[in-house]
Amino acid sequence: MPPYLKIYDGTTDPDDHVTHYVTAVKDNDLAKGQVSSILLKKFGETLTGGALTWYSQLPAHSIETFEEMDDKFVTAHAKAKKAEARVNDIFAIKQPPGEGLRNFLARFNRVRMTLPNLLEGMTVASFQNGLNRNGSRATRKLLSQLMKYPPTTWDKIYNAYCAEVRADEDDLNGPTH
What we know:
Layout: H1 14-26, H2 32-42, H3 49-56, H4 66-76, H5 78-84, H6 101-113, H7 120-130, H8 137-148, H9 154-165, H10 169-172
Helix pairs in contact: 8-9
């Protein structure tokens, strides 16, 4: 596969991946009769993560044409297309009472990574908005730091977490009285 072809992990638009894949294969100076066969045989090499798991669980010889593969692939990964379009959903992520800062940060970051077109300002605002103001001491300490030095990028939020909280998070997440 061409090095510029992105490997698909199941988190973005599957139609977009198929379009890029077909274009890459057709750009390889293959005879017209070879294209369909190559498309079908090499498709698995462009997958990773959940998409590769889905592909590996297909019964052997259950798909005869690339058009059939395309249809099954897009149907199986349609949820990713829907998720990609809902950038504003990141504002719905809230830290519930009792959830540690480390877990919230990891959960928030997982969702953030599925939204590649998310504007930096939206990321910053939604993270700060999602923090529980009455949460653990670690959460309150991070909020205080973010209010004192307002971040403009996700990296600044993560650096504040690392510098101000992570080192002593275990102590800070103890019971509050």
